[in-house]
Amino acid sequence: MVLDGGLSAQLAAAGHRLDGELWSARLLLDAPAALVAAHRAYFAAGAAVVITASYQAGFAGFARRGVGRAGAVELFGRSVALAREAADGVPGRWVAASVGPYGAVRADGSEYRGRYGLGVAELERFHRPRIEALAAAGPDLLALETVPDTVEAEALLRAVKGVGVPAWLSYTVAGGRTRAGQPLDRAFALAAGVEEVVAVGVNCCAPGEVGAAVRLAAAVTGKPVVAYPNSGERWDGAGWTGRAAGPARYARDWVAAGARLVGGCCRVGPAQIAELAEALARTGR
């Protein structure tokens, strides 16, 4: 199944500024039609699943924009409704509600380090209201994504219990380990017996990290694997450097290793997803 690419990539290409602590979630307030258009671009490119604009959304961030708790719950729900609107009622199009990590909501880059100094219980208390607000809006899936460490993974796995929506758990990785440096086999194993989790894998990482992670995730959990890496370019503080390599280049190998949901993350746009969809169509996936 083909996932979309980076929502921010398409929004930036359309001329929208994404600075500020809410990132793409700001457009839930300021330009919701832009989100519908971005999601539609990915569906038109061949994606079967789009991921909502709730990655960096948080109650505190909305409060700083003058939105109270009830209004914030409505905005979480709006992220799902806008993606559903973009699906245009076409059968086989799915909406995954993004649940980004605590570090993303802090907007300080700590999602690439993890180990925030908070325990599992504290992180569960943070995530549970976000997950409940998204689940109430009726997405097909919850995307527990860009998770940097096992402490946050444990919290998220606790927080999804009983919400009634299946989820995938996706780590961000580097050097064959979580961003916090933990072994991936142990990280994936946390989700092995969790009924709510229907897929595990990696996202927001270099494409070269994916193959080994897919094989490991499949072996450890026996679950379908999700993989949606970045373009391969790197941010050096002033701009993007290096050569982009869309997921289509590697997709058949990832599928052969156990990946069943494949897409892209940062710097992967609709053109790269169209290439991916074509490549996967040739594999029958």
TrEMBL record:
It comes from the Bacteria. Zn(2+) binds at C204, C265, C266. InterPro entries: BHMT-like (IPR017226), HCY_dom (IPR003726), HCY_dom_sf (IPR036589), Hcy_S-methyltransferase (IPR051486). Residues 1-280 form the Hcy-binding domain. The keyword Transferase applies. One of its GO terms (molecular function) is S-adenosylmethionine-homocysteine S-methyltransferase activity. One of its GO terms (biological process) is S-methylmethionine cycle. Keywords: Metal-binding, Methyltransferase, Transferase, Zinc. SUPFAM superfamilies: Homocysteine S-methyltransferase. PROSITE patterns: HCY. Its cofactor is Zn(2+). Binds 1 zinc ion per subunit. NCBIfam families: PRK09485.1 (NF007020). PANTHER family: HOMOCYSTEINE S-METHYLTRANSFERASE-LIKE ISOFORM 1, ZGC:172121. This is Homocysteine S-methyltransferase.
